[in-house]
Every structure is written in structure tokens, then in C-alpha cells.
Specification:
Rossmann fold; 14 strands; 6-stranded parallel beta sheet; alpha/beta; 43% helix; 8-stranded mixed beta sheet; elongated; 2 domains
């Protein structure tokens, strides 16, 4: 049988979305092989939950953060496991534990970005080495895993994440909004506003606004997201004299989130810590030019000068110049947006993700201890 142990699947973040997509692929793969598949989620409420991914249903078992119960349940199936998929490096000790019971288990470990850009504590690094394959969303993170965790590069597989299918089929209502408010220009960031993610660059956009407003007095900056850093950022907007232009609208999903993407002029998140940056894909799927930080996995998402632009982290002057140039040139915005949308359809669909992960799973079918 196949067992997947993930951290969380029901949230709105990129890791949760990738987890849902992974669960759907694992279920489909197990069906093709005629074997059972169980999907465990550590942080979901206890009990069973149903997910829908690309028209398919997936059943998961939540454990309400009860690690002992999850480990006990996993051990019950250990002797019958063909494959173990672990959805985060912090779950790596489970690979060592289950391999003691059954050395023939083929183990796939998922990583995402900043959590593997520095050496993990020794016990986790040792357990990470047990994995037969380690997936990561960017070549930047792949290099970091090899350098910082001591994993042979041939065991690291780059699998970029995918958008949910609905993000490539939503109606674009930006034209009606532009017609009703021809003078308003809107910048958008979608991010978790938590202190541990202070690298997102929202503060840099706020500083840049002071230089943008003289050229575009009606510019607005919308920030979608919540977290403990939000009060500090709101205070920064007040101290910078731009509080009336910065709108913190909280977390959004579904049609509400789609509306913000659809009606913005530029998506901007000059982050320094993105393993990939799912929000860039979401904005690009709506044909929007994107500006991101020239660091981490972002340069693999944004083709500088083709689908958007890259800026050095913390460079509010450079960011302001880029934004001003784009706001003045509707033709360039449209051209970048069209290329961005094209890139999404070529590289970042669920089918692309499925094919890459499926190839990793096929290697597991050929593996012998």
C-alpha cells in the first residue's frame, strides 16, 4: 500500500495546495496499481475529510496535531507499505522509524524552500538521507538541499507546483473595473503577514509608494493576507504618510481572491525567501505583470523583462522606478501579462505537476531494497 503523511491540506497556502495536488496524484497512482492508499494529515481536525482536486475526490484522515496517534497508526501499516510519501522535512524521522520495521519501503520526501536553505538539526538531516527521492519546487532549492543537507544531487527532483484548475478558467472582470475607475491604478500583494515571513517585502512596497504617489496620485495598494505582522505594517503605512493608499483586506479565497487578482494592474511581492512563489502563478494566470525579488526560486518563476520584473530585496527606489514605468505604459503591462498567462498554460497546470510526480512514483515501483 501507499501511505502519505502531510502536515496540512485544507488551508489556502502554497504548501497546502501542493499537498492536495500530491494527494490526488497518489490516489490515482495507487488505483492504477490496484493497491490501497491512505492520506494522513497531522494538523487537520480529527476524522475523515473529503477533498476535490481537478474533479476527483480524495479522502484524508486528520489527526488534530496528535503526533502519537499518527505515529501509532502509521506503524500499524508499516509492514505492508510499498511507498511512503512525507510532506515536509520535519516529518523525516518517520522515514527512519518506518524503515526499521520495513526496510523495503520506498520513501519520497517533499521540501519547499527556505526551510532547507540552512542545515537542519542533525537528527533531521540524518533522517532526510533515508529518502530515496526528495522533491523541491526550484533548482535554487535543489542546490541548497545538496549544499546544506548533504543530499546527493541525483536524488533531488525539481517539481514546480501547479495552479488549481479554476485559476486558469476564471472570468477576467478587470476591464469593467478599469472603465468605471479610469484614473485608479492598483498594486496587489497576496501573502501571509506573519513575523516569520517578514521577508515578503510588503514594507518595501510601502516605502516605494511615497515615490509613486507624485506621479500617480490615485494609486492604491491592496494587501491580501493576515498575521501577527499586520499591525506593524499598518503602523509603517501611517508613519510613511501613505495609510490612505494602503488597504489591508484580510485573507481571501475563491471568487473574492480572484477578483483582487483580476482587477489589479500590477502584482508585486519583492520577497527574499520564496522557494517558488505560488501567488506569482496565480497573478500570471490572470494575465497580470508581476514584480518579485531577485532571490530564491522567484527568478525561475518570473522571466525578467518577459513576464514581469525582478528587483533586489529592500530596494524601494528600484521598485518605485519599475512600478512607475509600468503604470505609465499600458502596452507593456498587457504584453507582459499575455506572456505570463501563456507561461502558466505551458508549464504550471495540474497535468504538468501530475506527470512530473508520476515519474518519481514510477521509480518507486522499480526500486528494490
Amino acid at each position: 500500500m501507499i501511505l502519505a503523511i502531510l502536515t496540512q491540506l485544507l488551508g489556502v497556502g502554497g504548501i497546502e495546495r501542493t499537498g492536495r495536488h500530491t494527494a490526488a496524484v497518489l490516489e490515482a497512482y495507487a488505483r492504477e496499481l490496484g493497491m490501497p492508499c491512505r492520506i494522513y494529515s497531522l494538523n487537520e481536525p480529527p476524522g475523515t475529510h473529503e477533498l476535490r482536486v481537478g474533479g476527483s475526490g480524495v479522502t484524508i484522515q486528520g489527526f488534530g496535531r496528535n503526533k502519537i496517534q499518527l505515529i501509532t497508526s502509521a506503524l500499524k501499516y508499516a509492514r505492508n507499505l510499498n511507498m511512503l510519501y512525507l510532506g515536509h522535512p520535519r516529518l523525516a524521522p518517520l522515514a527512519c522509524l518506518l524503515r526499521v520495521v520495513n526496510p523495503r519501503i520506498y520513501c519520497v520526501m517533499a521540501t519547499y524552500g527556505i526551510e532547507v536553505w540552512a542545515p537542519l538539526p542533525l537528527p533531521y538531516r540524518l533522517c532526510l538521507k533515508v529518502a530515496n527521492a526528495i522533491t523541491t519546487p526550484s533548482t535554487f532549492s535543489a542546490r541548497k538541499i545538496a549544499e546544506c543537507q548533504g543530499i546527493p544531487s541525483q536524488r533531488i527532483v525539481v517539481i514546480p507546483p501547479a495552479l488549481d484548475p479554476e485559476f486558469t478558467h476564471r472570468k477576467d472582470d478587470s476591464h469593467t473595473t478599469a472603465a468605471s475607475k479610469p484614473q485608479v491604478k492598483t498594486l496587489l500583494t497576496v501573502a501571509r503577514l506573519v513575523s516569520s515571513d517578514g521577508y515578503k517585502g510588503v514594507d518595501t512596497v510601502i516605502y516605494a509608494l511615497r515615490k509613486i504617489i507624485p506621479g500617480f496620485p490615485n494609486v492604491q495598494y491592496i494587501v491580501v493576507g493576515d498575521g501577527d505582522d499586520k499591525p506593524k505594517l499598518m503602523q509603517l503605512a501611517r508613519e510613511s504618510g501613505v495609510a490612505d493608499r494602503v488597504h489591508f483586506v484580510g485573507s481571501k479565497s475563491g471568487d473574492e481572491l480572484a477578483h483582487y487578482y483580476s482587477t489589479c494592474d500590477i502584482f508585486v511581492m519583492p520577497s527574499s525567501g520564496e522557494g517558488f512563489g505560488m501567488v506569482f502563478l496565480e497573478a500570471m494566470s490572470f494575465g497580470k505583470p508581476v514584480i518579485g525579488g531577485d532571490h530564491g526560486g522567484t527568478p525561475e518563476v518570473i522571466d525578467d523583462g518577459v513576464t514581469g520584473f525582478l528587483v533586489k530585496y529592500g530596494d524601494d527606489n528600484g521598485l518605485a522606478r519599475l512600478i512607475l514605468a509600468l503604470l505609465k505604459d499600458e502596452g507593456t503591462r498587457q504584453m507582459l501579462g499575455q506572456e505570463a498567462r501563456k507561461r502558466i498554460l505551458e508549464r504550471y497546470t495540474f497535468q504538468n505537476f501530475r506527470d512530473r510526480l508520476w515519474a518519481v512514483l514510477l521509480e518507486g515501483s522499480r526500486w528494490k531494497s
